[in-house]
Amino acid sequence: MNKEMDKKKIIKFVIITYIIAWAIEIPISIYYVKNPGMAGNNVFRIGMVIAMYVPILVAFILNKTLKGMGWKPSLKGNVRWIFWAILVPAVVVILGAVLFYVLYPDLFDSTASSYLRKQGEDLGVDMIGQLESQGITPRLYAVITLISSVTYAGFINMFVAVGEEAGWRGFLYTELRKGFGRVSTWIIGGVIWAAFHFPVMIIGGYEYGTDYLGAPVLGLIVFSINCIANGLLHEIIYDKTKCIWFPALLHGGLNAVANAPLLFWNMNAEEKASKLMILGPAVNGIIGMIPLVIFAVIMAGMVMRGEKGKTYNE
Fold it and tell me: pTM for the whole thing?
């Protein structure tokens, strides 16, 4: 097996991935902005799902194979990592949300109704009315969503997330590790992963909206830090298990629970809420991601200490 980092292949991977992904992200973002209702939302969501498969496609094109990424589920000695992949996102997201709402209690809506009402208005549907017709209150809906997010939703989402994971962790991070140490790989890989989302963030308001403090530059910086921390955890679990499904499960679990804190977002203070979206309550905000970053730093320290004196080739 070739242990030399192929710089040209990495550059080709990044450029081709961006060209194809951005060719999808730019038009769906424009359409979403011009059509803010249900149609625009559906087009945007479908487009983002398609874009998530671009990294695996480009990795296959360049390598002419996807072998060696650990496609066969390996449970022997790895069962604990399944719980790790599900529980870590839930814990860091919930702790980040609690921290944010403690600092900004006026933005917390215990009824979980104002956010659903605003979402319904944006989509042109009566979300609360539909729920109540089924005997479900907004608060109960929030609880059900949270429970599903930390139980089975990650397993469903991983079949989409694996499109990115096979590209980022299976190809990019693995290739970067042949020429860089872990820290450099985490930083470079995280920034590349973040930039993959930049068009939808700048045009479509993905992650933070478009009216937040420091928009749009601060959002790109904060999201890059978020991706470095997340990428670090994804790379560690992939390295420990040698199976691409584990980081895909972690990615899917994070996507499932990431926006759960927004269900308690007080949209009655809409102007303040939109301005402070860069801070939280979601895990991608400056305050919301503090527990994530702390945990990532702890994990990084443990890994670095455990590998002290070792090299990648060993």
Answer: 0.92
Cβ atoms of 194 and 262 within 8 Å: the answer is no
Phi, psi of 142 (to 5 degrees): -65, -40
- The Cα–Cα gap between 184 and 25 comes to 28
Q: What is the DSSP string of 190-210?
A: HHHHHHTTHHHHHTT-TTT-S
Determine phi and psi for 38, rounding to 5 degrees: -60, -40
198/216 Cα distance (integer angstroms): 10
The span from the CA of 302 to the CA of 282, in Å, is 26
Note the residue count of the chain. 314
Distance CA 252, CA 23 (A): 24
Distance CA 196, CA 234 (A): 17
CB neighbourhood size of 103 (10 A): 13
Whole-angstrom distance, CA of residue 186 vs CA of residue 232: 5
Torsion of CA 240, 244, 247, 252, to 10 degrees: -160
The per-residue pLDDT for range 14-58, each reduced to its tens digit, is 999 999 999 999 999 999 999 988 899 999 999 999 999 999 999
